[in-house]
Amino acid sequence: MSEPPSELSERPSRSELKRRAAEVSRLAERLAELPERDLDAIVADDEVREAIAQCRPLRKNARSRQLRLIAKLLRASDRGPIEAGLSQLEGKHRKRVRREHEQEAWRQRLLSEGDRALDELVELYPEADRNHLRTLIRSARKEPPSPRSKHASREILRSLTTIVGREG
Question: Do 59 and 103 belong together in one domain?
Answer without folding.
Answer: no
